[in-house]
Amino acid sequence: MRESVAEVGITGSTFDRVSRKAGVSRGLLHYYFGTKERLLVDVIRRDTEIRVEALGSALREAESVDGVISALFDTFTRTLKTEVGYVFMVSELFVAGRDNKEILEELGRLYGTARSEFAAILREKESQGVVKLRFPAEDVLTYLIASGDGASVQRLSQPDLDFSGADHLAYETARFLLWAED
Structural domain tally of the chain? Predict the structure, then answer.
């Protein structure tokens, strides 16, 4: 489903198309998921769990503010380079959520879960002296995740644009948020 959404969007990702790509019967998808929307929600839930686990692990291992920032930025970069279908699927699900409350609520839950888990890690890192937050951890993460999402959309829509200046600014902004000078 992820690959199909990246190729042809949600509308074009029918059970027939997805079943052919997956090498399973259409009936099997219908039996397990019932609707295309439920399959989409299940895919995004599982993909998000994998990403939360990977980024959470990288954040836990970080031993400096630069390590924390690198963990965040490396995750966005890796997703754009090797898992672009996830970016398209999140965007498509957001748009589909306009007409489907279940999808929008699930997307909101996933963002909330990720934000809560990462906030707990940042608070732990703060207690260890690795970061010194200027603002509440949840607010910092809401901002950083939103910035990463927006940057992803821009990078996908303008692949030839040089983002090095914006990357530097993003890094320095993250540093400002994660390290308050005394």
Answer: 1
Q: Are 37 and 102 in contact (CB under 8 A)?
A: yes
**Residue 119 belongs to what domain range?**
36-178
Rg (CA), the chain: 18
Q: What is the largest CA-CA distance in the chain?
A: 62
- Give the residue ranges of DSSP H helices in the chain: 2-12, 15-22, 26-33, 36-61, 65-82, 84-96, 101-127, 137-157, 164-178
- Beta carbons within 8 Å of 172's beta carbon, 6+ residues apart: none
pLDDT tens column, 107-158? 999 999 999 999 999 999 999 999 999 999 999 999 999 999 999 999 999 9
Give me the amino acid identity at 25: S
Closest CA to 172 of 142, 141, 149, 144: 144
Q: Is residue 25 part of a domain?
A: no
Q: What is the CATH number of the domain that holds 154?
A: 1.10.357.10
